[in-house]
Amino acid sequence: ALTEERFRATFDPGAVGIAHIGENGRFELVNRKLCQLLGYSREELSGLTVLDVSHPQDREAAPSERRRARRREPESFSAVRRYLRKDGTPVWMEVAISLVRGVDGAPSYEIAVFEDITARREAETALQRSEGRFRALLENSADGIVLADGDGCMIYGSPGSRRTMGYALGEA
Known about the structure:
By secondary structure, the chain is of the alpha+beta class. The protein contains 7 helices and 7 strands; from the N terminus they run αββααααβββαββα. The strands form 2 sheets. A 5-stranded antiparallel sheet has the order 2-1-5-4-3, sandwiched between helices.
C-alpha cells in the first residue's frame, strides 16, 4: 500500500506528462498532466498509440529509436518531438523514454516523460528571425555601422563601415 501511495503521489500530480507505453506503442497508463497537454481524457489516450498523436513529420524517427532501446542501444533516450493535441494543434515536447524490462530481461514497457517546450521553441524561432533581420539590416546598409565591446574594441563593422574606413573584413 505504501508503494502504491508513493507511486500515485509521484505519477499523477506531476508538472510533466508521464506515461507507461506498451510494446505496441499504446498508452497503458497516463497522468493528468499528459491528458492536459494533449487534450484527451485518460480513456481516450488509452485507446491510442504514441504514433497516433505524433506529428506526421516526426513519425519516422520514433519506431527506430524504440527498436534500438529494445536492443539496449541505449535503453533510454530523449528527443524533441511535435505531437498533435486532440484539436489538431501541434505541441512541441521534449520526451525522455526509458525501457523497463521484466525479471526475464524481456522488454516490458516504456516510461515516457513529456515536457511542453512549445513556448521555448516559439521564442527561439522569434529570436532567430529577429537576428536574421538585424543581420540583413547591418549587411545591406550603405551606412557605416560598427559594433564594439565594452572595451571599445570593434567586434563588427558593416560593409559600409569597412568601405568608409578602408578596411577589409577581419582587418579592423
